[in-house]
Every structure is written in C-alpha cells, then in structure tokens.
TrEMBL record:
Disordered: annotated span: 539-558
Superkingdom to which the source organism belongs: Bacteria
The protein's name: TonB-dependent receptor
Species of provenance: Pedobacter agri
Keyword Ion transport: yes
Keywords: Cell outer membrane, Ion transport, Iron, Iron transport, Membrane, Receptor, Signal, TonB box, Transmembrane, Transmembrane beta strand, Transport
C-alpha cells in the first residue's frame, strides 16, 4: 500500500471571480515553479488534477486584474476559490496586442514567457532560445551559438521572418534580415515572445513568409530588484549581466536597466566575438494611460567565419578558418530609441501610438589578394620600371543608416463578442553605403597622402507604409475573423538603368494582404480552426541593384492555408496544425548572372511547402514532464532551371529539373525536452533536436546535401534563497553531450571551365561537446 499513498493523485478545484462575483472565464491557473497550468471555463471554474500529496502554491492571473496566489497543503481533493481585484492601470500587454494572435485565433503560434526564456539564456544568441519550438532550425557561423547566428522557420530564412520589438520593425529595410548580433543579450530584457508560423496576423515591417517573431521587452514589475548573472563556458566564453529595477514608485513610475558583456573565442578557429549592450526603460502608469520610453544599444566586433570550410577540410580540421588577416573583422553598433503612449479612451476603446528611431553604423574589414587597382579607382603604379596593375589590399565596406517612423493601433470592443482593430505604420530608412581601401601594397591613391581611398559611395532611401483592419466576431461557439492589410513600399537606390549605365533608380510597389479564418470552440480548453492568408514581399537590395527595370525580379506572393486542433487537459496540452504554403514567383538562386557578371536571384513560377506540425506537453507525474514538437513536410519547386556559365568562353549551360526540393528545407524537424524536478528547487532536463537532411541547392542532388543530425543537451539547475538573498541560481548547460559531428548550414557553387564542370560544397561545422555554467543572484 505504501506506493499507492506515495503517489496518491489529488485534484484542486475552484472558481475565479471578480469583486462582484462575476465569473472570469479564460483566467490562467498555474502551480508555481511547475509547468502545470489550466484555463478557467465559461463559468470561471477550473480543475487541476494528478497532484501528489504535498505543499503547493497556486497562482491565478487574468488580463486587467492583479494576480493572486495561495498556498495549500494537499492531502486529498481540495477546493480553492479566487477573487481577483481589477487593476487601476493598463497592462503593458496592450502595446503589442494589435499584432498578436489570441488563444481563439485561427492561426498557429507559440508563446514564450520570461521564465521559459531564462532557462537557456546562458550567453547564446536569441535564436538558440527558440530551438525547442516547432519547425525551427538554428545555426551558428562560429559553431557555438555566440556571434553570427541564423534562424529558419519552416525552411524560410531570416529575410522571410518578420521581427518586431514592441510592434516596431527590426528587420533591415534593405537586406530584410534580422541580425540579433547587433543586440547581444536582448533576451535578458525580453518579457515574452510570440512566434507565429506562416503569414500570421497583420504586422508592421517586411512581409512574413516563414513566420513572425513578436517580441515584447521589459514590462511593469511592482517590486524593486537587482540581478547579477555571470556565465563561463567552453571556448573561453563569458557572459556578465547586471539588471536593476525600481519597482512601482508612488504607484505610478517604474525604471529598469541592464548592462551586458559577452565574449567568446568560438568553436571555429579565430571566430571570436566581443559583444556589449545596454537597455534602459522608464514608464508612467496612470489609471487610463501608459507612457514608456526605451533606449537600448548593442556593439559587436566579430572575427569573420562567414565562408565556412570545404568538404575536404571537414575531415582534416573541422575548426579551420580560411581567414588569417589579423583584423578580418565585422564591426557594428546599433542604437534604438522607442517612445510609447497607450490611452484607454473609453471602456471600449484603447489607443496605442509609438515613435521610434534606430541609428546603425559600422564596417567590415577584409584582406584581398592580387586585386586590379582599376577596380578600386586607383591608378597603376610604376616601380623600378615595372607597371603594377594589381595589388594586395585591405578594404572596409561601410554602412551608415537611419530608420525612423511611427506605429499605431486602435482597439475597439463595442461588446464582449465583437472586437475591431485598426493599426498600421509609416517608416523611413536612409542608408549610406561607402567603401574604402585603407592599405594597398602598391598604391598611388589620389596623391593627397590619405591612407583611406573611397572608391564607392551610394545612398538609398526607402519608405514603408501599411494600414490594416481586423475584426473578430463570436457567435455561439464560433469565432470569425477577417484581416485586411494594404502596404506601399517606395525604394530609391543606386543601380543600373535600362541602358546598363549606373545611376539612381527607384521603384514603387503596392501590396494587398487579406486574411480570414474561423475557430470552433468545443470548450474553453479545446478548439479547431482554419484560415487562409495572402502575403506579398518585395525583392531585397541585391535584387534591385543587380538588375535594371526590365530585368528586375517580381515581388513574391504567398497564399497560406492553415488548419488545426488545440486542446488542454489537466496534465496534457496538444496542438496539431496542418499547413499549405503556395508560392508564386518565389525568389531563389538559380546561378543566372546579371549584366555585370554577378549572381542574381530569379523568380520561379510555382513552389510550395506543405506539412503537419505537432506541439505537445505531458505532465506525466508531479515531478516529471515531457514536451515535444515534430514537423513533417514536403517543400517543392515544380520547375527549376539551373544556369552555369563557362569561365573560358562565356557559354551558357542550363539544366532543367522537375519537382525538386527547396534548399535548406528539411522534411523532418523534431524536438524533445524531458524535465525532472529532483527536488522542489532542483531539476534536470534532457533536450533533443533532430533535423532531417537538407539540400544545399535546388537540384535535389544527393552530392550537395547537409546530412541529418540528432543532437542532445543536458541542463541542470538549482535555485534557493540564501542569507536574505531572494534567489541564488546555478545552471549548467552541456551542449551536444554525445559530441555529434554535424553541420547545420552550408552552401554550394558550380564551376565550369572549357566544358569541364565541377561543384564545390562548403559547410559550417557546429561545436562538439561544450558547456556553459551560470551563477544567477537575485536581490
């Protein structure tokens, strides 16, 4: 009988109401320090089952009300009711609510809160903290997750993933990618993230083709705090973070700040990183309004590991780096300024507005051998009677850009079952691109004696306007939504005119992105949904600058169909989502050259991604849980033509393919996290990630492939109060515990000379077994 009593399963039932005894449906009820959570039903009732005897703290939260917690010594089934008090001020969540999906939305998403992010926030870049979410693949140039990192969702790279910080676009206006290296340790100032896969809801910034990351930074914390977080790990990796906050002062003001430093030598030889950042935020909370200002900045200096290594080098020296010049580095700083105002105009109408400004500047420096001086506007040099027309040299390629604008939203709820959102933004970008030779073995420059010779200087200007409207209507158990967005892009850039002459060019593009869906609620814990959404996306900078108005690629178009089922029991949550993404004119590399001999992306008429995603969690027993995701997909281009030019005579060879795989789109992606609480304040987790094979190009050739990989990590954590300190936390993350040899990224290029065709692959090897050890102290 002893085992029966030891594992006796009890339940806690109760009801959540307000001061007037009105039920609060949709309240979140959690067991503190565990992942167990449920949602109250239409009558405010809830049940948490499968609880062993012991002491528990139950926490209840509901938007617009103060959270409440109660402790209970559980020896059998028990009843615990909660009466929540309405807050006298708005919550920060309304700032991002216009561009987010809710639990009844007919789209697929995953929410990550601060506590979940903190578990793995030991120094690796933000994409690595998302690695256990569905359909995600991450990679690192330096091999260990510090420095330049990459993120793909459903096979779509960063240029097709829309990223916003508090509703403000983060994607670069020209390249359209998001570079988290410019904001090192951003995760330490993040309160929550919503990841939407597919087109998702209307948002600001570049079109979302693979997904969206909607990031909300620091929100209100009522109590003053201070936190020291220090990490040391393999490859001489260090992370030092200091965070402080005032708590709520005079029931109106809060101030928060963070200072961070991250350094690492990298797994790849010389792939070092030296990263620094700060974050400062201040807010005013009134009964009907919020005013918040954020100022944050990041600087990075990384030794380049952009080129990967050859296939042969994978066998002889996986940590090899082709670069040997001492200062082959990337150097960049980005400053962000954000000002938000939220006003509860009436009980039914909430308005948000934000002003923002981002200033970025920096360069990368590189050594080049035997370059034609004429290509850099440098006259030939005569030395000892010999005319030198080529030279070794060092060059710097500079960026200096400004990005600023306004975003807004109006949320109108005339009745409980009806909601309207009107939102949008206007942003401007000014980018200066200029390049310098700072040293040459043979050089005359311009005779001024300057050590810097500017050989290229061009400017770009871009405007991005969008407006969207969304309506949600609840009819019995059905929830209907319609979402309409209009977006206009204007781009002025230095490119090529129809006659092949360089000069300032411009383009204007108009996009209409409709979306619609329906959700059927079986109960407050279970629903099915279906939606269809259209997305459009402009070409990037290189697509424009490397073509003229007649050869310019067309914008990409995507129709995204999603359908799924979500359910939650007392100990199991499960989401199953099917997707079909139909592309028209998707832009891919084909090998075709432009007018000046550079590689260009070309439109392919028809391609698609289709698959199923599973995202679940099972609280097996009180101390043991298992979370897992899996994606199974087909990613195809119906007709693909590869172009290869003969370097000997310029002749063109083409190869035609049918129904080929889209590059870097694995058909299987899966993750698993098994977590066991050894003690109430100590846990061990076993994390696994499987990524199927990926093609390096769009030909489906087995000789140009990233092999599948299965990588496992172990995370140990211990937290305890100590001598008046709120919490002392120790975390040990052992990455790739079985030292699997794998490459998560790569590329390939063909070479044809005098009819002789060869192909070369290159890869980005990832670190073998390595560790990060963290000490976190909270006051």
């Amino acid at each position: 009988m002893l085992p029966f009593f030891a594992w006796a399963q009890n339940s806690v039932t109760g009801k959540v109401t307000d001061n007037d005894q009105n039920a609060l449906p949709g309240a979140t009820i959690k067991i503190k320090n565990q992942k167990t959570s449920v949602i109250s039903d239409a009558n405010g009732n809830f049940t948490i089952g499968n609880l062993a005897n012991g002491n528990y703290t139950v926490l209840v939260s509901y938007v617009g009300y103060r959270s409440q917690e109660k402790s209970i010594n559980l020896t059998g089934n028990s009843t615990l009711n909660f009466v929540l008090v309405q807050q006298n001020f708005l919550a920060d969540e309304v700032v991002v609510s216009a561009t987010r999906a809710s639990k009844n939305s007919a789209t697929t998403f995953r929410n990550l809160d601060k506590a979940e992010l903190a578990k793995n926030n030991l120094g690796q870049d933000l994409p690595y903290l998302l690695n256990q979410t569905p359909s995600v693949v991450v990679t690192s140039d330096a091999g260990a997750g510090v420095g330049y990192t990459g993120l793909r969702i459903r096979g779509s790279d960063a240029t097709r993933i829309n990223v916003t910080l508090n509703g403000i676009p983060l994607n670069d206006a020209e390249s359209q990618g998001s570079f988290f290296i410019n904001l090192p340790d951003l995760a330490s100032s993040v309160d929550n993230i919503q990841i939407q896969r597919g087109v998702g809801t209307s948002t600001n910034g570049a079109g979302a083709f693979g997904g969206s990351l909607n990031i909300q930074t620091t929100t209100r914390r009522d109590s003053a705090y201070a936190e020291l977080n220090n990490t040391y790990g393999s490859y001489d990796t260090w992370k030092n973070t200091v965070s402080v906050g005032s708590g709520l002062i005079a029931n109106k003001f809060t101030f928060d700040g963070r200072l961070s430093r991250i350094e690492s030598d990298g797994y790849v030889d010389r792939a070092s990183s030296n990263l620094k950042s700060f974050f400062v935020s201040g807010a005013y909370y009134g009964k009907k309004d919020i005013l918040r200002a954020n100022v944050f900045s990041g600087t990075e200096k990384t030794y380049q590991a952009w080129n990967g290594i050859s296939e042969e080098m994978l066998v002889t020296n996986r940590r090899h780096n082709d670069f040997t010049y001492d200062n082959q580095t990337d150097n960049y700083q980005q400053d962000h300024y954000q000002l938000f105002y939220t006003r509860n105009i009436t009980n039914q109408l909430v308005a948000n507005a934000a002003l923002h400004y981002t200033y970025g500047r920096g360069y990368y420096e590189e050594y080049k051998e035997d370059r034609k001086l004429s290509d850099y506007g440098i006259p030939a040099v005569v030395l000892g009677g010999v005319t030198q027309i080529t030279s070794d040299l060092v060059r710097r390629l500079w960026l200096d850009n400004d990005f600023y604008g306004v975003t807004y939203s109006l949320n109108y709820t005339p009745q409980n079952d009806l909601n309207f959102v009107l939102g949008g933004a206007y942003n401007e970008y000014k980018g200066r691109h200029f390049d310098e030779v700072i040293w040459a073995q043979f050089a005359n420059y311009d005779g001024s004696g300057s050590i810097r010779h500017r050989y290229d200087d061009n400017d770009a200007f871009k405007t991005d306007f969008n407006i969207f409207g969304r309506a949600n209507y609840q009819v019995d158990q059905f929830n209907f939504f319609a979402d309409l967005q209009y977006r206009r892009v204007y781009y002025s850039y230095f490119g090529i005119d129809p006659n092949g002459n360089p000069g300032q060019q411009n383009a204007s593009l108009d996009f209409f992105n409709p979306k619609a869906g329906v959700t059927y609620n079986f109960s407050d814990k279970s629903n099915v949904y279906a939606s269809v959404a259209v997305g459009n996306k402009e070409p990037n900078r290189r697509d424009f600058t490397d073509s003229n108005v007649n050869s310019r690629p067309k914008p990409e178009n995507l129709t995204d169909v999603e359908a799924g089922y979500r359910t939650q029991f007392s100990n199991v949550s499960l989401g199953i989502n099917g997707f079909a993404m139909f592309y028209k004119d998707q832009l891919i590399n084909t090998g075709k050259l432009n007018d000046v001999g550079g590689q260009t992306r070309q439109n392919v008429p028809d391609s698609y991604r289709a698959g199923i995603e599973i995202d679940g969690r099972w609280q097996i027993i009180k101390n043991l849980s298992w979370a897992a995701t899996a994606t199974f997909s087909r990613n195809k281009i119906k007709d693909f033509t590869e172009f290869i030019y003969d370097d000997a005579n310029g002749a063109l060879t083409t190869f035609n393919y049918n129904n080929t795989n889209i590059a870097f789109s694995p058909s299987i992606i899966a993750s698993s996290e098994i977590n066991y609480n050894v003690l109430p304040n100590a846990s061990v987790a076993f994390l696994s990630k499987y990524v199927g094979k990926q093609n390096l190009d769009n030909t489906s050739a087995d000789t140009r492939m990233l092999s599948s990989f299965f990588v496992n990590d172990i995370r140990l954590s211990y937290n305890t109060p100590l001598a008046g300190i709120k919490n002392v936390g120790l975390s040990l993350l052992i990455n790739n515990v079985f030292s699997t040899l794998y490459e998560s990224n790569g590329g390939t290029y063909p070479y044809l000379y005098a009819g002789d065709l060869s192909r070369s692959n290159y890869y980005y090897p990832q670190a073998t077994r390595n560790f990060l050890l963290s000490l976190n102290v909270k006051f």
